Give the backbone structure.
Amino acid sequence: MTESRAREKPRILSLHGFRTSAKILETQIHKWPESVLEKLDLVYLDAPYPSTGRSGVEGIFDPPYFEWFQTNQGVGVQNFTEYENFEECIAFIEDFMVKNGPFDGLLGFSQGAILAAALPGMQGEGLVLTKVPKIQFLILISGAKLGGSKFSAPPLAANAFSPPVKCPSLHVIGENDFQKLESIALLDSFVDPIVIHHPKGHTIPKLDDQSLEIVNNFIEKIRNLATT
């Protein structure tokens, strides 16, 4: 990343939620004011796998819907312990980053945030994203920890949070989000997490004045980071 471009806008690869799409995430993130979005170069990517079941946004957003990887969670299964296409989806992301980068950081919502949270640690181990620059920051909305109480860690992500992730991170947590406890637990896996709490559920919230100030300060931090 050149210094001149870095001062303009951090370039961010944005990973959508489970059984949604790049287009849906772009619509959701536009709840944030243009004064914020104009400071970021957000690039949206559809996950590689078409939805294998019903989407929770049917009737709200139009298909098609996609998912990053699949799990064994289902009727009678309380936790996610087995994964399919986890390594494959990361290879897909890396290929996109190589062809369309460089990218400075990642933004993720829900399943996209779960995946994004683990990538810097795996990259630091030399296991993934070896062909692209180091991930410099994360924006995680309704995230959770692979290796936490709900989501077991796939073998590739076994040490993703050991040691804790050092890159700057912004965590957006909903008071009525079904994933709230997992989002809070994820904070312990980051050295210096910045947190926004909002009163809504599993969604990308509008930003009140306090949240807007936090986001703007974080953007200034990552812009300065990108130029050093």
About this structure: DSSP finds seven helices and ten strands in the chain. The beta strands are 11-15, 41-45, 49-50, 66-67, 70-71, 83-84, 105-109, 137-141, 169-174, 193-198.
